[in-house]
Design goal:
By secondary structure, the protein is mainly α. The protein has helices at residues 2-6, 11-21, 31-40, 54-67, 89-99, and strands spanning 71-75, 83-86. α2 (11-21) crosses α3 (31-40). It is elongated and about 60 Å long.
Length: 107
C-alpha cells in the first residue's frame, strides 16, 4: 500500500485493490486506514531528489575505471548502452581455482 501511495495513487483505488486481493494480513479494516497511511508516506518524487544529467553518471563511471579497484573496464559504443565490467582480481583467482577443480563445474 505504501508504494502505491508514494506513486500518488488515490487511496480509494489502493483500498479497493487490497480488498480484491483478500489477504487477511494485508487488507486494511477500512478506507480511513489507507488515508492515514497516505498521510505518513512522502509524496515527493519517487526517483531522486535531484534530477541529474545521464552524462554525469557516465562520466562518474569513466572516472571510476581509474580510481576504483572494482571497476575494470567501460566500453562505449555509439547507439548502445555502456558496458561496465567490474571484478576484483581475487574473484578471478577464485573462479580459476573453483573451475579447475576435479569436480565438474557449471559457470
Amino acid at each position: 500500500m505504501r508504494t502505491a501511495l508514494q506513486h500518488r495513487e488515490h487511496p480509494i483505488q489502493v483500498y479497493d485493490r487490497q480488498q480484491a486481493v483478500d489477504d487477511s494480513f494485508d487488507v486494511p479494516r477500512n478506507y480511513k486506514r489507507v488515508i492515514n497511511l497516505g498521510q505518513t508516506v512522502p509524496t515527493g518524487p519517487v526517483a531522486s531528489a535531484s534530477i541529474k544529467n545521464p552524462a554525469d553518471d557516465i562520466q562518474a563511471v569513466l572516472n571510476a575505471v581509474q580510481e576504483n579497484e572494482y571497476v575494470q573496464s567501460c566500453v562505449l559504443n555509439k547507439g548502445k548502452l555502456p558496458i561496465v565490467i567490474c571484478y576484483l582480481p581475487e574473484q578471478i583467482k577464485d573462479m580459476q581455482r573453483f573451475c579447475t577443480a576435479a569436480a565438474p563445474t557449471v559457470l
